[in-house]
Write a structure and sequence with these properties.
Blueprint (H helix, E strand, L loop, with lengths): L2 H13 L4 H8 L2 H7 E2 L2 E2 L1 H7 L7 H11 L4 H15 L6 H4 L9 H12 L7 H14 L3 H4 L7 E3 L5 E6 L5 E6 L1 H14 L9 E9 L4 E6 L2 H16 L5 H14 L5 H7 L23 H8 L2
Antiparallel strand pairs: 1-2, 3-4, 4-5, 6-7
Helix pairs in contact: 1-2, 5-6, 8-9, 8-12, 9-11, 9-13
Length: 303
């Protein structure tokens, strides 16, 4: 890695908060960008050959490189526009023409959405949808982890507090506490629906799967896309704007940071991040002792 490539790598790693592996991967393209752009103009013939079989994220990397080279915004945009046109991607000027929308919700907005669901006469699964939103906000788990939750996954500790135990991204074990109120709602939902503890909380009403162990017919869980569509539809009807389930995780971390005043080191653990840079931190993080605070935090996050 020559001096200029190393400088670009450090820029990605420290300024843009890329993880170590991502920064190394993106810095690799640096030498090619130098050959494609001469005198602030894109060489179209070389670019066409170069873009064959290249990943989409190369456009973001080029943008970071141009910013690092301190290109003017007008020149940067023109090069990106031409680069995207050759790549076959539509170009929007929104990065520089308007502010990005806020991608998280306040606790008050989430409570407003929950109230909307309670009063929504068209929604036949009010309890399930409310539990879904509360779980996202209290636990910051991913969609792939949420859809697989069962009542049997919820464990009660020696102090009478409840937590969800399971395996998430990368087959890593997670343990997230929930409030007593939410636990009682989940338990009541299982009782009302006549579900077994081994059945999925967010089961699909249309697809069935036979479990041969007990000769019992049970429902499969909802797909991730179904959860995305559900959250998006609820927010559109309640607040008139689109919303992604992952934004509820961001909302929870924002609340923990701004209201509960949790330090970044603990936000990293709360967000299940493997790298501090994912939570925009440079602090060393120790896991020890944080589990003792989780039950109290879960109660404060209760909606």
């Amino acid at each position: 890695m020559d001096a200029e490539v190393r400088e670009f790598f450090n820029h990605l790693f420290s300024t843009n908060k890329y993880s170590l592996s991502t920064a190394k991967n993106r810095a690799y393209y640096h030498k090619h960008f130098k050959e494609l752009i001469k005198n602030d103009e894109l060489d179209k013939n070389k670019t066409r050959k170069y873009l064959f079989n290249k990943p989409t994220y190369i456009i973001t990397t080029l943008e970071r490189w141009l910013e690092w080279k301190k290109m003017s915004k007008a020149t940067l945009y023109e090069i990106l526009k031409e680069f995207k046109r050759i790549r076959g991607i539509s170009v929007r000027r929104q990065r520089y023409s308007r502010k990005k929308p806020r991608r998280w919700a306040t606790k008050q907005e989430i409570q407003q959405v929950i109230e909307f669901i309670k009063n929504d006469k068209k929604n036949r699964r009010k309890k399930r949808d409310i539990i879904m939103i509360k779980l996202f906000f209290e636990t910051t788990i991913r969609v792939s982890e949420l859809v697989k939750i069962k009542l049997s996954d919820i464990v009660t500790d020696n102090n009478g507090k409840h937590y969800i135990e399971g395996f998430g991204k990368g087959n890593k074990k997670f343990k997230e506490y929930i409030s007593d109120e939410l636990y009682n709602e989940i338990k009541e939902y299982y009782k009302t629906k006549g579900l077994y503890a081994e059945e999925y909380l967010f089961h699909s009403p249309t697809k069935k799967l036979k479990i041969f162990r007990n000769d019992m017919i049970t429902f499969t869980h909802l797909s991730r896309q179904a959860v995305h569509n559900k959250i998006n539809k609820i927010w559109l009807r309640a607040l008139g704007k689109r919303f992604h389930p992952h934004a509820l995780k961001t909302s929870s971390l924002k609340y923990c940071e701004q209201v509960l005043k949790l330090p970044i080191s603990k936000l990293k653990l709360k967000g299940h991040h493997s790298d501090e840079r994912t939570t925009l931190t440079y602090l060393d993080v120790e896991d020890a002792g944080f589990d003792d605070e989780k039950p109290e935090i879960a109660e404060k996050l209760s909606l």
